[in-house]
Amino acid sequence: MKKSLFHTLVLLTLAALTGLFVLTGCAQTAATPTVAPVTQSNGSAIAEGRVVPNDFAYLSFMSSGQVSEVLVKAGDQVKKGDVLARLGDREAAEAAVAAAELELTAAQRQADDLQKTAALGTQQAQADLLAAERALIQARQTLTALDTDDYQTRLDDAREEVTTAKDDLKDAQDEFDKVKDLDVDNTTRKNADKALSDAQRTYDEAIYKRDLIINELDQAKTAVDLAQARVDEARRISTAKVSGPDPDDQALADARLKNARAQLAAAQAALSRLDITAPYDCTVMKVDISAGEKAAQGLTVITVADLSQWVVETTDLAERDVVSLKIGQKASLNPDALPDLEMTGTIESIADTYIEKSGDITYVVRIPIENPDPLLRWGMTVKVNFK
């Protein structure tokens, strides 16, 4: 390449002297920026990398607003879920969470009460069934006690009395018809009229007596039928109660409970957007906001990192070299800032996706450092020699 450059300079000088300008292919190539290629040393790939924490995050508020509190400073150790900073004007969001919690409590109580009521209803339904079965037994006993030969004799006698009274009424009517045209004050007519009235009354009383006796048996039979129907209904209810609450009531309670949980989750999410919390156990690396400042949604204000492990990530490993690497392969690591320090590591992962740099395709390889030096800092450049 040095020889080519020398020839190029000579040609450019000659072109200037003759008024001609010649652009050579080698000069054109030299003007194009490229990523420094990965070199080979004794058959091993050498790449450049950067020291990074095991994990890190740039945190921002999910809503815009005025910062009310910043609870951490650079260097603080925090646990996952710890609140790092808060926005103000939280009253409406906190009230929404409280209302959602109240509704969830009420919905849960309704669901619990439904189960308790169902258990009580099961016992009550069983008691009602037993009472209905007892009433049926008593109705059958009453019917059995009534439907006897004595009852039939009484009924037959009553029917006979009706027949006799009917005959007597007919005779009285015939006698009255004979004298009905006499003067109303006539003694014979009066006696015939009275005899007719007495016969009618006797006939009516015989009918009533007979019908009451018949009604006794009909009523007893109806009582048995009614008691049986009540037993059937009580048994149906008891069977339904055994399977739990009424399906419609249960569906309504479940829907209310599901909605209450969703409302609470939504309210809590809205409130959480006013806070920045630690995504994992980590160290606060940088804080770029103070209480009273206006925070913009999505703008990084706090940087955190997991410093439990330092990792080297390659920055220029080309496609032609990445294919020769594999997970578990060893590498030596030499920081540019600490030239006498040699560390070791093992490939943890090889990216499946690429990064394009100045037209070259590169892949990131992660190598946890097995023996990190206390002087290491985030972002230091490291030479990586894959073995």
Low-confidence stretches: 1-39
Strand fraction band?
15-25%
* CATH class category of the largest domain: Mainly Beta
N/C terminus separation: 29 Å
Helix and strand pattern: HHEEEEEHHHHEEEEHEEEEEEE
Radius of gyration: 53 Å
As for the number of domains, it is 3
Shape: rod-shaped
Characterize the largest beta sheet: strand count, sense, and whether it forms a barrel: 10 strands, antiparallel
Structural class: alpha+beta
| CATH-defined architecture of the largest domain | Beta Barrel
Oligomer: single chain
Summarize model confidence as the mean pLDDT: 87
Helicity level, as a percent range?
Answer: 40-55%
- Total count of helical runs of at least 4 residues: 7
CATH superfamily heading of the largest domain: Efflux pump adaptor protein, beta barrel domain
**What is the CATH T-level topology of the largest domain?**
Elongation Factor Tu (Ef-tu), domain 3
Strand tally is: 16
